[in-house]
Amino acid sequence: MRILKPSDILPSEITPRALFEDRRRFLVGAGATLAAGAAMWAGLPAEARAAAAKLGPLARSPFSSDEPQTPYKSVTTYNNYYEFGTDKEDPAANAGKLAVRPWTVRVEGLAGKPRTFDIDELLKLAPLEERIYRLRCVEAWSMVIPWVGFPLSALLRQVDPQGSAKYVEFVTHYDPKIMLRRPVLDWPYTEGLRMDEAMHPLTLLTLGLYGEVLPNQNGAPVRVVVPWKYGFKSAKSIVAIRLVDKEPRTAWNKSAPSEYGFYSNVNPNVDHPRWSQATERRIGEFRKRPTLMFNGYAEQVASLYQGMDLRKSF
Amino acid sequence: MTKPPSAAQLAAIKALLFALCLVPFALYMQRWFDDALGANPIEAITRGSGDWTLRFLLITLAVTPLRKLTGLNWLLRLRRMLGLFAFFYASLHFTTYFWLDQFFDLQSIAHDIMKRPFITVGFSAFVLLIPLAVTSNNYAIRRLGGRRWQSLHRSVYAIGILAIVHYWWLVKADILEPMIYGLILAALLGMRGWWREQERRRQIAASMPRPMPGGKVIPLVAKSPRY
After folding, report:
1. Per-residue confidence band for B221, with pLDDT thresholds at 50, 70 and 90
2. Where are the membrane-spanning stretches (chain B) (predicted)?
3. Residue B167 pLDDT greater than 80, yes or no
4. pLDDT tens digits along A63-98
5. Residues in the annotated binding site of A
């Protein structure tokens, strides 16, 4: 199967410079219009929304979906971020306590040049792109979200991963003073990817959504988004990224190994033991729609799993 | 003991209770039409109707213990309405699933009921509620006879347990809420078990011959040796 790697070709290489820059200006303008539109949808006064820091200029990505985007209000009030409460509205109500600055991310483990990155450094590490991705939650609902970020591979290349690094582990922020103390999951929440999954151009180190910095409830200030996997694989509020040689344990896998596998690729043919994964409800829609293999990203990622039994490696 | 309410007072109490029991339904309807149920209104309705079914089941099961503890026997006369409201919210819960969630997809519903244990259990609880709702009238009591009617309606204990299991199996990791409901149910059923055991002992004691005056007390259990 063909793997599209558009990130390898910069738009500037294929478009005359003047045209390219003109398009950039258009995109910045479009981004501002989009943000204004989002503010209107959210039904908030423009000043309130203007308080969130804008990110830009943003490059457009061929990976982006052209499906209707889930309204900003739904994206930011219907969240699974268990550290801030296990009801969908809890994170929006409680995540305001999270101090997102100063913030650093250690990238360590089997790396030639392990180091710690400041959040301001991360924001400038690579050109920011808008990536409009489908998000499929393991609970059988979905959204379409315009994320802002750059491929995780750009960060990992900075630390020179060793050949022995086969997996990437994400460690997220945990502060019992402001977060849930009940051991609903084994805090801090950790997640993991295989090295080739982490280096895949779709895997996004994410710093914003709807053209602005991430709201706290969506995993501020930095998270990953892995669009072909169930949402819980996309770790929020990351403080460390470890390059390791063994498959790392992950929070949901530890909680219920028979229900949440390491891979957790979106797969309509493999049901969660307690509910069907064949269909999903897109937030804002009434009728359910069929769930797509790899959440519709099969063309880009199916080759990663060639020869694997996805029923066993669920 | 306070005097029981007069017929007119009881009618007023019942009317008030009826209105009160409809408040959750009215609030959800209002939020539905105001588009105030959040990003996923169907999920909110499903959860809300499920929560209120469980609450009304527990309230109904609390009537007998409350009557025994307070001596207010007239409370029993509110139990039928409370039980029927449990059925009302259960019907809404099931309709939400059948209509809004599955949109009458009978194949998918049949698959769910067969394959998903939490739905199997929830569906069973709902089916078991139907005969209780149908026989919640004086005619049925007369027809069945008090004893048979009562043993039929004791299935509400099993329904309560099934409802807790349904909730417990559906949550992903945070079992706090189903546990709280489960503990309340355990207390309500535990009280009944305790009272029944007391009653049994009293009956045994009453049927046993009195010990002979001046007779020797023979310990039935040997004392454990001291070390």
Report:
1. low
2. 12-32, 52-69, 81-100, 120-140, 152-169, 175-195
3. yes
4. 999 999 999 999 999 999 999 999 999 999 999 999
5. 79, 82-83, 137, 172, 218, 223, 234-236
Q: Which residues contact B133 (CB under 8 A, 6 or more apart)?
A: B83, B84, B87
Task: Confirm or reject contact between B169 and chain A (CB < 8 A).
Answer: yes
**Each residue of A252-269: pLDDT tens digit?**
999 999 999 999 999 999
Give residue for tokens 């139990």.
Answer: B79
Number of domains in chain B: 1
Does residue B28 lie within any of the structural domains?
yes
CA distance A60 to chain B (A): 27
Is there a domain that residue B202 lies in?
A: no
Strands A289-290 and A279-282: antiparallel
With respect to residue B18, please indicate whether it lies within any of the assigned structural domains. yes
CA dist., res. B182 & res. B160, Å (int):
9
Q: Where are the domains of chain A?
A: 6-305
Show which residues on chain A lie within 8 Å of chain B, measured between beta carbons: 73-74, 77-78, 82, 86, 88-89, 139, 141, 182, 184-185, 252, 255-256, 271, 274-276, 279, 281, 283-284, 286-288
Best CA proximity match to A281, nearest among A12, A66, A78, A16? A78
Torsion angle in degrees (nearest 10) through CA of A208, A212, A216, A222: 30
Give the range of the structural domain holding residue B95, as residue numbers without chain letter. 9-194
Q: How does pLDDT run across A196-227, given as a tens digit for each residue?
A: 999 999 999 999 999 999 999 999 999 999 99
What local confidence, expressed as pLDDT, does residue A249 receive? 96
- Rounded Cα–Cα distance for residues B115 and B108 (Å): 10
Q: Output the pLDDT for position B217.
A: 60
Name the residue of chain B whose CA is nearest to A273's CA: B116
* CA–CA dist B57, B41 (Å, integer): 24
The answer to whether residue A127 scores a pLDDT higher than 70 is yes
* The pLDDT value given to residue B3: 82
Residue B199 lies in a domain: no
Main-chain phi, psi angles of B61, to 5 degrees: -70, -15
| Cross-chain residue pair B174–A255, CB shorter than 8 Å | no
Q: Which of B104, B172, B176, B180 to mutate to test the interface with A (most CBs of A within 10 A)?
A: B172
Which of B50, B75, B53 is closest to B62 using CA atoms? B75
Average pLDDT over chain B, rounded to an integer: 92
Q: CA–CA separation, A106 vs A172, rounded Å?
A: 11
What distance in Å separates residue B52's CA from the closest CA in chain A?
A: 17
In CATH terms, the superfamily for domain A6-305 is Oxidoreductase, molybdopterin-binding domain (3.90.420.10)
Section B20-28 average pLDDT: 97
pLDDT(A133) > 90: yes
Which residues of A belong to the annotated binding site for Mo-molybdopterin?
79, 82-83, 137, 172, 218, 223, 234-236
